[in-house]
Structures are given as structure tokens and as C-alpha cells.
Known about the structure:
There is one protein chain. This protein has helices at residues 15-26, 55-68, 78-94, 101-120, 150-153, 158-162, 173-182, 204-212; strands at residues 6-10, 30-37, 72-76, 125-127, 132-135, 138-141, 164-165, 217-221, 227-231, 258-263, 268-272, 278-289, 298-304, 312-319, 322-332, 339-344, 347-358. By secondary structure, the chain is of the alpha/beta class. The protein folds into three domains: 6-189, Rossmann fold (3-Layer(aba) Sandwich), CATH 3.40.50.620; 214-272, Adenine nucleotide alpha hydrolases-like domains (SH3 type barrels); 276-358, Translation factors (Elongation Factor Tu (Ef-tu), domain 3), CATH 2.40.30. It is globular, with a radius of gyration of 22 Å.
Amino acid sequence: MTGRLKVLAAMSGGVDSAVAAARVVDAGHDVTGVHLALSAAPATLRHGARGCCTLEDANDARRAADVLEIPFYVWDLAERFRADVIDDFVNEYAAGRTPNPCLRCNEKIKFSAVLDRALALGFDAVVTGHHARLVDGRLMRSVDDGKDQSYVLAVLTPRQLSRAMFPLGDSTKVQVRAEAAARGLQVADKPDSHDICFIADGDTRGFLARRLGAQDGAIVDAVSGDVVGSHGGSFGFTVGQRRGLHLDRPAPGGEPRYVLSIQPVTNTVVVGPGELLDADEISADAPVWTSGVTPTGDVGCLVQVRAHGTATPSTITVSGDSVVARLRAPQRGVAAGQALVMYDGDVVLGSATISAARRADVPA
């Protein structure tokens, strides 16, 4: 994309999206700001710094647009957000998987619903405040490793990336805040959002229990086979979890136990020693290749299984709609439902949804 573009700036009310919009304005493009109303009852979302998408955020986004002297609108996407993000989140936990709602929001809301509407209205591109780079159409990590968000953008298709703009990828968060202050943006010192925006009190287990209902079940020790506790629903746990298990008896050696697996059909949570969490072979489904090119043969790359996890040298093999990654060093607590994101250095090759993880030397 070259020349003067008509750009829609997604403005969350945070410092990143405000500075991203400002930079596109400075580049000479025709910019319109839009804030996404993602809740039918915004007052139920958390306030302050702990989440996003609140009434305060909408007001902050509007004030930033005023400073930039650009048109500003609010788009009501609450119903789409409920169906594609919240319901998906609940359903994934009910199935014993661990979803990433921020990744799903990028995929289904910001770069599907918003981008499609923007293109229909005649816009050329959508700009966001994500910390990532686009170089010659390739999605790459941000220069700020601590704020890099390429992991949650790795679900985007080549078509979506061709209409995206990420102006912050060459800057650190410290630089972004300093620029916001220099521009007179009130959000310069606004804390980053954390946790899950649609869970107002931060109690994920309570949120799921209200949606799915209490379902009493057993916690079983993987080594002894003994029942060592009970729970109110297997949906309240995730692989690798150590805290909040409330076990009735300690392990014989006193070592900590972790959640090893979740079995929703029997409503059973299996716990055991941490070493049983180690996995060096990961299977994943439904890959999305950000370049549009499917790798062939055995490909050496880096893989990452959490948004801010360690990138591990691996070899991937693609077969149809599935990917197998063989890790050179084991990763602990790999959970089904999360994204397996593959990198060539700083370049994102693609992503796939984790279906299983195991030690390769242990029979499946």
C-alpha cells in the first residue's frame, strides 16, 4: 500500500493505540478513529488498569482522537464479541482446553469483523497499537521483546496482514509513552491492561462456574491412582496449574503437585509431579501460514507456546491440516487449546492450535 490511504484506527483507549493513530496521521494519511464497544453492559467490565474495553477507555479514546483532530466513532460489536470470544472461551474450558481470548479477539473481532466492515466502508487499512512489525508483508516480532505481541497476531492471514498497519513495532514501550506525553495525550501514563477484560472481578473459575454450573468431580494422583481431592468443575483448571488445587493429602515425598491433564468427559482432574509436565513433541491443528506458503518437509524453526513464553528451537513437520513440532528442549505445561506459534528468527511463519503434547520417549 502506497500513497495517501484512508485508514481506520482502532483506538482502545490506551497509550499504544493513541500513538499508533498519531503516527499514521503524521504520515499524511486520512485517519478515522473507532472504539469498539464489546459489552452490552459496559459498566460490568472492570475499571482502571486491570482490563480493557471499559467506559473509561471509550472516553480516553475519544479524548485522544480530539487531540489528534480526527473523526471518532464507537462501533457496537458486543454481540459478535460475545459469540466469538466469550462463548468460545467458555466452550473451550468446558472441553478441557485452555483458550487465549486476546488471540481470538484479534482473529475474530479486530481483523475479521472490523477489517471487513472497514473495507466495505472504503477504508484501505486498519491500524492498531500492537507491538509487532510488518516488513515487506511479513509479520515480525517487535524490537521490544518484553512487549512483543506477534504471538497473538500469528492467527492472521496474508490477506488480513496486507490491510494491517502496526506503527509501533520499531519502538519500545518507554519510547511510546514519552512520545504520548510530548503529544499531550492524557493516556501517556495510563497503566497497561491485564487479565481478561470480560471477567470483571478477575475470578475466572467463578465466571466459568456461573456459566457452566457446579459439577463435582475427583482429583486423582497420576502416580498412585488415588483420589486426593475434589473440585466443583474440571473447567476451573488448566494444565500446569499448581495453586488453588486444595488437595486433601500431600504427596508422599511432600513435593508439589501440578495439573497434568483435564478429562471433561469424566469430570476428572489428574495431578502429579512437575516432571510429568515436560513435553518435547507437540501436535497442533488448523495451521494458518502468515506468508500464505505451507512449509514442506522437516523445517527447523523456533516455536512458542505462550504469549510471553520462551521460543524453543524445534523441527516442524506439516501434514495436511496438522503440524507436529519436535522440540530440542522440553517445555513444561503445554496446554491444548493454546497456540503453537512458529518463527524463523523474528519472522512469524504461522500458528496452529495445540491438540496434544507428550514426551516423545513415552508411548502415546
